[in-house]
Amino acid sequence: MREVTRRELLGWGLTGSAAAVLAGCATPGTTSVNAQPVVPAAGEKVTLTYWAWLKDLQKVADVWNAQHPEIQVEVAWIPGGNSGGYQKMYSALAAGGGPDLAQVEMRTVPEFMLVNGLVDLERYGVSEHAGKFDETLWNQVSFAGGVYGIPQDSGPVGMYYRPDLYEQVGADVPATWAQWAEVAPAFREAGMYIDSFPLDDTSVFTAHAMQAGAAWLRSAEDGWVIDMASDVTLDVARFFDQAIDDDLVTTSANPYSPGWFAAAADDQIASLVSASWGDALLAGVSGAEGKWRVAPAPRWDHGFGSSFIGGSTSAVLANSKHPKEAMEFAVWLNTDPEGIDAMIKYSGIGWSPARDYIGASREEPSEFFGGQRYNTEVFQPATQQQNPDWQWWPITQQTFNILGDGFRRKATGGTLVDAVVAAEARTIEVFRQKGLTIRKAER
């Protein structure tokens, strides 16, 4: 992915009032500027605060604390970003306070940038650590010649499947989406589904389009260029429109919902294209141990071998008095083997962004997946097969909400294709309402 230049960042066109609206509340952002760092005196202890929704992250921080008495980290749990965590951060920024570090999703980084909510870590030499991280994920936090967060986790996509159910219907595990569509009817004839398709979680459809090679928005010197309703994306929408119309997938049981768990336990779900972090969730299926395996995601006849769902950063917020120390902790947390192993053990972290270490436990064979070394066989290669041109934009969540509203109309006669076209038009309107410059790509 090409980095956004500083001129392009300014070209996004936010006025002060638009920045406040973008943040989703009335007051933040325009008054929030990077605080003046405080250089601790020799021997003086620095205490950093970290807001995150990861469970038991303090136990991970304590590993660092034991080795760094001069820099101590205190973790405070907050609700997930869109469940109240971001509102809490924006309010704290507007009041001139907040933590030193916070968990911010990759897709939300541009929103925080446009309210001056994040520290550009390039000021503190973060680029010397770039080689420690997966390049695709590093690109997701690199804008305008700066770096606005430390990658924390991601979710490369593969396919979880039941070998016994595939054998029952005499089907091979599909390597392509065309093969997936060919074998899916056999599962319906046997009273099960090959997969589910969520109509109210558009991150799944987004991952499919991303894998096919779509890039919905990109920055340009005069603002943003939108290509959401491209032929690539509409082809993916048509594919799943047909799959839903032919009853090849269930739309009534979203992945990992109570209904889905019940269906999976009752041998009604044969496979699931999902992110690496789904491995822990599958353990919630009653009687599932030893029955599931993992394969690469089916491929389109163009695009990439995988994509990703989710992903967070350890971001240094604008009012931090100790941004350099916060950066040092964030780099350790997300690249040091001790930090990664502790986050897997205590916090159930998603896929590590470290270039050369996935976690000791993830290199071992898995009893749950029948002794398969699925992380090294499937997900590690998947991280090298992702769309490097994908870029998040300043109103990502709002676009997802708009698209979700359209997808839900599928149940009453709408189509995914129409939803995508309408979401592109509405996204353009929202950009312009917020003072952002945007134009359609030439097709």
From TrEMBL:
For this protein, the record's Pfam families field holds: SBP_bac_1 (PF01547)
Kindly state which keywords UniProt assigns to this record, in alphabetical order. Cell membrane, Lipoprotein, Membrane, Palmitate, Signal
| Domain of life of the source | Bacteria
**Is-annotated flag, keyword Membrane?**
yes
User: What name does the UniProt record give this protein?
Assistant: Extracellular solute-binding protein
Native source species? Isoptericola peretonis
